[in-house]
Amino acid sequence: MIGLVLRRLAQGVPTLLAVVAVSFFMMRLAPGGPFDLERPLSPAAMENLRRVYGLNQPLIVQFGGYLGALARGDLGPSFSFQDMTVAGLIRQGLPVSATLGGLALLLATVLGVGLGTLAALRRGGPADRVIGLGAALSLSLPSFVVAPLFQIAFGLTLRWLPLSGWDGGSPGHLILPVATLALPQVGALARLTRASLGEALRTQPVRTMRSFGLPPFRVTRHALRGALLPVVAYLGPLAAALLTGSVVVETIFGLPGIGRYFVEGALNRDYTLVMGVVLVVAAFVIVLNLAADLACAWLDPRLRVAP
Amino acid sequence: MAALAVLGLVALACLVGPLLIAQEPDRFFPDLRQLPAGLTAQPDADHLGPALERIAFRIRARVAQTDRTGDSLRLVLASDRPIEPRGLVYLPRSDLFGPATVVATEEGGRRLVLDVPVRRLRFPLGTDIHGRDLLARSLVAGRISLAVGLTATFVALVIGVAYGATAGFLGGAIDAAMMRVVDALYALPFVFFVILLLVFFRASLGLMLLAIAAVEWLDMARIVRAQTLSLRERDFVRAARALGLTTPAILARHIVPNALGPIAVAATLLVPQVILLESFLSFLGLGVQEPQTSWGVLIAEGARAIETAPHMLAAPAVFLVATLVALNLFGDAMADALDPRSD
């Protein structure tokens, strides 16, 4: 087991290297630079700045330098945020994004799996149809439509909740962003659960359990364990996407998460900040995919022998 | 099948709608900014006065008296100096009035009595911050959104089908290597790459199509490979091979046509995803650029004006959501129809 985890983590290293290389060269080969202001700097000042940040060296030397610093855990200084290191910015932004994403993940999982189970048990009934339609609707509602609607409804009209801002993560400021993030995933998880539990409920073992007279609750519990496999597999990438921040939700609600740092960094040609955020996101994707695979192996012994 | 009807309706409206409605999507009405949705003809009583004041100011005159009966307006302009009649061209130039006829010249040209026809403009979905008709703009935007959705899906479809069918048919080490590449690509934070690509190389329609297609072909490749794996052991494929057909011929003649059902379902469900991604990028200002517009662009404009003009968000959002819901439901219905186990 430990060997498997180590092997998978080792496989993640080339992926991370590829991510670093692709984003590094994509940004550097593009026109424009971090010091292009509306009023151009004098050539001497520009040359000075470029030398201080090491931008005057050949690209491949810079890349080697970045990798070397990375190996020591140094993500470099930010170009656009004065006197801030990228590591410092991520330390500020990640807790915000992780809080939002974690809560949204929890909400989406509880609601989605719950509603999906209900729909599978009442297959064809009115509850099933309402849940199915609601799921299709929630999947079709983009977050950048839902977020302003929530702002109108709860912020402007009812005045129950603040429009935007973070305010140290007070519960009032969290409700709308978390609901916006969770909404489409509730639909996705409900559909997934309904489909796979519906299939599981029609298998022979379940029929046998029913014929032995087991109470419906226990039959469902047994069926659900197997049926949760695809759901858990889906949760891995989903968790990574939610925990590392939604660019749109953070922008609309004005939250200081890493998704917003990423967009601002990209617009300001802040090379190191963008690289730092992409690296953190990629690392999350790899680790959480691994976690999902381990959870699947725990649920289904047949998967334990696979590489 | 209601889903299909909604889809057809939206597509038809976007295709021919802009030709049928009177307002051009790019025509500015500076006096009619952020009108709410409604069927009243414009300019109404609230907007007539300010519009006249603005024009009178440019002619260097004052509005002394107005009297509106139906479509025509009796307007009296007054000034301290004689009014230059040539300034009256500002009236038709505003797009709200027709050309004025001078009924009487009083006080040595310092008072003009005019008959001015008033146009009747209708903006069923209101206007945006520049006074452009939102219905016309939403329909024109729909053309771009739908075109991007279909084109990018088609590109992703071609790449995914070719890749998946090749991997599945060749099998063995080649298959393993090809699918390992797909697995590795799945682990990349693709949306971040797309944003980087569009920020650093100037955003354009072609680049966005390419970026979206590059992200969305992975699912298709997996689905087609799974289908191919089961198809290639079937007798008709072995017969084709025994007859000496080449691999590309077998793929094109036997494998892909027999996998068309699942491919069609996946493609149908891919279109809403692509449209969603396009609007997401356009919302961030990275997708479709002015003067072209898409639903994402209009929604972004609406979201910025949400406190003063919520209708600006509502109009494009309704179009977008209706299209996405219809596509998703249609795809589900197709999947159910093709799945023999479904009840």
Task: Provide an overview of this structure.
The complex is a heterodimer of chains A (307) and B (343). Chain A has a domain at 94-266: MetI-like (MetI-like fold, Orthogonal Bundle), CATH 1.10.3720. Chain A contains twelve helices and no strands. Chain A has helices spanning 2-29, 43-52, 59-71, 86-121, 126-140, 143-157, 171-200, 204-211, 216-243, 247-252, 258-267, 271-299. The relative contact order of chain A is 0.15. Chain B folds into two domains: 43-117; 134-338, Orthogonal Bundle (MetI-like fold), CATH 1.10.3720.10. In chain B, strands 2-3-5-4 form a four-stranded antiparallel β-sheet, covered by helices on one side. In chain B, a hairpin with a 4-residue loop joins strand 4 and strand 5. In chain B, helix 1 (2-20) packs across helix 12, helix 4 (134-170) packs across helix 11 and helix 11 (295-304) packs across helix 12. The mean pLDDT of chain B is 80. Chain A binds chain B through residues 12, 15, 18-19, 22-23, 26-27, 30-32, 123-124, 136-137, 139-142, 144-145, 147-149, 151-152, 156, 199, 237, 244, 247-248, 251-252, 262-263, 266-267, 269, 274, 277-278, 281-282, 285-286, 289, and chain B through 184, 186-189, 191-193, 195-197, 199-201, 272, 276, 279-280, 283-284, 296, 299-300, 302-303, 306-307, 310, 313, 317, 320-321, 324-325, 327-329, 332, 341, 343.
